[in-house]
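Quarterly update from the structural biology core.
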Amino acid sequence: MLVRKHYLFYGRVQGVGFRFTAYHKAVELGLTGWVCNLPDGSVEACFQGEESLIERLVSEMKHTRFICIDSMKVENLTVLKDETSFEMKY
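Predicted structure, tokenized:
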């Protein structure tokens, strides 16, 4: 069953390869969505796919060298039927 989740990540999440790592992990896991840096130093992302795969991605991000997620906010969104890829927004 597909789910879509919107995340805001706070901590040492910019300038440490967060977007690059999230992009590659999402593609590897077959997730769709996007990730981008925000002006306040946080990172915003939407992940769509199997819930267990999204949880795996977030867990792996928490244990990635240089990245330090102090807190995050997450909300469930409506699945987008026409989304077919994952992208890094600038």
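The mean pLDDT is 97.
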